[in-house]
Amino acid sequence: MRLNFINKKLKYLSKSIKESFDINEINKIAKDKKFIQRQSSIIAKDFLRFTMSYGSDICTSPLSQLVSKYDMLFSKQLSKQSLDKSFNKHSVEFMKEIFVKFLYSQSNTLTNLECTLRTYFDRVIINDSTSFILTKEFKKKFSGFVGYGSPSSIKIQLQYESLTGLFMNIDIFLCIKNDVEYLKTIKKYKYYKDLKLADLGYFKIDYLKRLNKSGTYFISKIKSNTSLYMKNPNPEKYKVGIIKKSSEHIKIDIINKNLMLLT
């Protein structure tokens, strides 16, 4: 079952890679990043497909298992030592460069808007997180949610600068921590003409106001069934002058009205 899943994923990735890259371009990137420096048993194209298709457990699987899967997929026998040595700083740089090029090739919007983005923004910073289930041996250090499938899980917080393709921060958190707790790190990287993209769960209204005043821009999103309110400029009052609570705020129609949340 696992191998069938990898094969299906590999076919899809292979098709996407062929549409986005010429084999000579992949080899050039591998050489430029010093991943492939001489004749090697590891082929850049196969290494790329293997690491992209295997999944997150590639970091925890035994070398013997990785070598076996590599052989099954590409009919090429590798020694454990050879595969182990291929996971180095040069392979990281190779994969990062492929990721950036692949990202832009898959997104016409990003490609077409790159010049426009650079005109208005110095940086486009994307914040996001993903969670992974860990084995129960890690539950003391990385506790997870009850019913999550394991008593242990971990959350990876990522800051990525889209215009340069650089990863600004990669941090490890407990899975039970809310994204808003990462705001302490996000606050450190705030500059004029930045554009920040993140789910609303990362932000607090006071921080958004400070961004607005500092000349930093942000884009976020909310669910369509979320209720938003703004202060009523003309609230109803009792005869004694006290504002009626029911009229203190006005509900905003987020579908039919343009919003400026910070006004």
TrEMBL record:
<feature type="domain" description="Transposase IS4-like">
    <location>
        <begin position="121"/>
        <end position="239"/>
    </location>
</feature>
<dbReference type="Pfam" id="PF01609">
    <property type="entry name" value="DDE_Tnp_1"/>
</dbReference>
<keyword id="KW-0233">DNA recombination</keyword>
<dbReference type="GO" id="GO:0004803">
    <property type="term" value="F:transposase activity"/>
</dbReference>
<dbReference type="InterPro" id="IPR002559">
    <property type="entry name" value="Transposase_11"/>
</dbReference>
<dbReference type="InterPro" id="IPR012337">
    <property type="entry name" value="RNaseH-like_sf"/>
</dbReference>
<protein>
    <submittedName>
        <fullName>Transposase for insertion sequence element</fullName>
    </submittedName>
</protein>
<keyword id="KW-0815">Transposition</keyword>
<keyword id="KW-0238">DNA-binding</keyword>
<dbReference type="GO" id="GO:0003677">
    <property type="term" value="F:DNA binding"/>
</dbReference>
<dbReference type="InterPro" id="IPR047952">
    <property type="entry name" value="Transpos_IS4"/>
</dbReference>
<dbReference type="GO" id="GO:0006313">
    <property type="term" value="P:DNA transposition"/>
</dbReference>
<comment type="similarity">
    <text>Belongs to the transposase 11 family.</text>
</comment>
